[in-house]
């Protein structure tokens, strides 16, 4: 898909899952900021991967897309023998908790086995020169389990995953550390809170609520809406990933968060009010659509990140306020109806039926 312009690039970075929500923002950030570095985006293009997320940078000289599956060890090995990657930023994953409850096996395959396949390829390709390389595992705060009303997850909080999704991410993180310890593979891991922003697949809470408001459909709130999440604007996460990739000591872990906790019901009401405002509708119109539905099985009550380590040691802080990030996000979904149409294939509509039909409580 690219011209065969020859390259004399100092660095090559492999970004996995670069056609997904966070991955596409990370690819854009690196391609734009590091024109001397070749960014190879490896993605299987599952239901969640969409190359339309990257149309603005796809012609850049320092960008390549490769379609492939991290579960395929032979393919991964070939890719690593074709390119000498200096670093890997690993985002490819099955990422939705509700899907992991319906089908845990694909999470074990991609999130654990896929990650180990990449670690194996790095080990072989980098050999004794591993010290000049880096494997960066993008993980989640969900590996720490669920908090009560008090306290925060720090980098020392023991892993205690509660869903098939978080168990698979925790398993992958353990393998990354085990390869670091056993084979001296240089790695870093960051564990981030819930992201929001443009290009998020509309199965996750914020885009699902915006989309349903525009279609005048019920806004499904699980249980009583008392669960709490800490929300971070996706571009702030991309900036944090850049900081960690370039400045963290190998073997270290950083928590990344927005210091921005919201009860689900309060967040849904906030999205309703902002969307009414942006659509010039009577205040209170969207809130009438709020519908409490059967709770998620094993629903974690609260996630909250203590992000003081990355702020004190590496100087990263979120730059986007929640009010401005949410407004930008809602405006983006209102303006990008074609994008929505394209990602909402028959497959997603079938999943939606399976997930929500008969769930009204
Ligand atoms: P996403 O579901 O939007 O994107 C995942 C991408 O991975 C898609 O492009 C998909 O095609 C690709 N992929 C899936 N299976 C693959 C396979 N077998 N081989 C190659 N590519 C494959 O996910 P996201 O929300 O952008 O999350 C990205 C990463 O960040 C994940 O590792 C996730 O665990 C982590 N994370 C997400 C959040 C969040 O709030 N979304 C928070 C913290 C950490
Ligand atoms: P989600 O966006 O799926 O992220 P995660 O489960 O990884 O935190 O969900 C965010 C919160 O919103 C979570 O507490 C579950 C809840 N939720 C709903 O209440 N209704 C919904 O339709 C969805 C998808 C999520």
Summary?
With 361 residues, this protein is an alpha/beta fold.
Largest sheet properties: 7 strands, parallel
Percent of residues in β-strands = 15-25%
Rg, please? 20 Å
SSE arrangement, N to C:
EHEEHEHHEHEEHEEHEEHEHHHH
Give the N-to-C terminal Cα separation: 49 Å
Strand order, sheet with most strands = 3-2-1-4-5-6-10
The residue fraction in helices comes out at 40-55%
Unreliable parts: 1-8
Bound molecules: nicotinamide-adenine-dinucleotide, thymidine-5'-diphosphate
- What is the mean predicted local confidence, pLDDT? 95
Provide the CATH top-level class.
Alpha Beta
Classified in CATH, the superfamily is: NAD(P)-binding Rossmann-like Domain
- Integer tally of domains: 1
CATH level 3 topology: Rossmann fold
Structural class: alpha/beta
Q: Could you tell me the number of beta strands?
A: 12
Put simply, the count of helices is 12
Which outline best applies?
Answer: globular
The CATH architecture: 3-Layer(aba) Sandwich
Descriptive report:
The protein is of the alpha/beta class. It has one domain (11-267, 272-355): Rossmann fold (3-Layer(aba) Sandwich), CATH 3.40.50.720. Helices cover 42% and strands 16% of the residues. It contains twelve helices and twelve strands. It has helices at 21-33, 73-82, 97-102, 104-126, 164-183, 205-214, 234-247, 264-278, 308-314, 322-335, 337-343, 346-356; strands at residues 11-16, 37-43, 63-67, 87-90, 134-140, 187-192, 194-196, 219-222, 228-233, 253-256, 261-263, 290-293. It has a seven-stranded parallel sheet, with helices on both faces. A three-stranded mixed sheet has the order 7-9-11. The chain has a two-stranded parallel ribbon with strand order 8-12. Strand 5, helix 5 (164-183) and strand 6 form a beta-alpha-beta unit. The longest helix is centred in the first third of the chain and has 23 residues, at 104-126. It starts with 10 loop residues before the first strand and ends in a 5-residue tail after the last helix. The relative contact order is 0.13. Residues 97, 194, 204-205, 208, 220-222, 227, 229, 264, 296 line the site of thymidine-5'-diphosphate.
């Amino acid at each position: 898909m690219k011209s065969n312009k020859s390259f004399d690039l100092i660095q090559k970075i492999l970004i996995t899952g670069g056609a997904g929500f966070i991955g596409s923002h990370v690819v854009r950030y690196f391609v734009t900021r590091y024109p001397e570095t070749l960014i190879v985006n490896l993605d299987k293009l599952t239901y969640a991967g969409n190359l339309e997320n990257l149309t603005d940078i796809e012609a850049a000289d320092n960008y390549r897309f490769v379609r492939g599956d991290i579960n395929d060890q032979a393919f991964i090995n070939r890719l690593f023998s074709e390119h000498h990657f200096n670093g890997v930023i690993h985002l490819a994953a099955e990422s939705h908790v509700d899907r992991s409850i319906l089908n845990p096996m694909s999470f074990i395959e991609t999130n654990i086995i896929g990650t180990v396949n990449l670690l194996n390829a790095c080990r072989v390709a980098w050999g004794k020169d591993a010290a000049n390389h880096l494997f960066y595992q993008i993980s989640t705060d969900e590996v720490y389990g669920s908090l009560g009303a008090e306290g925060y997850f720090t980098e020392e909080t023991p892993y205690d995953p509660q869903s098939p999704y978080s168990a698979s991410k925790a398993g992958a993180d353990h393998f990354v550390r085990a390869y670091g310890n056993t084979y001296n593979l240089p790695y870093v891991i960051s564990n981030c809170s819930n992201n929001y922003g443009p290009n998020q697949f509309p199965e996750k809470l914020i885009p699902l609520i915006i989309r349903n408001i525009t279609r005048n459909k019920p806004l499904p709130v699980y249980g009583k809406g008392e669960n709490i999440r800490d929300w971070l604007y996706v571009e702030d996460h991309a900036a944090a990933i850049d900081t960690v990739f370039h400045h963290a000591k190998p073997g270290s872990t950083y928590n990344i968060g927005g210091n921005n906790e919201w009860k689900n019901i309060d967040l849904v009401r906030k999205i309703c009010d902002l969307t009414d405002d942006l659509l010039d509708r009577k205040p209170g119109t969207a809130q009438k659509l709020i519908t409490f539905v059967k709770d998620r099985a094993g629903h974690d009550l609260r996630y909250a990140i203590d992000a003081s380590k990355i702020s004190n040691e590496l100087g990263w802080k979120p730059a986007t306020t929640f009010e401005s990030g949410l407004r930008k996000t809602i405006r983006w979904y209102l303006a990008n109806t074609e994008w929505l149409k394209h990602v909402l294939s028959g497959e997603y509509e079938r999943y939606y039926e399976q997930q929500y039909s008969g769930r009204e409580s």
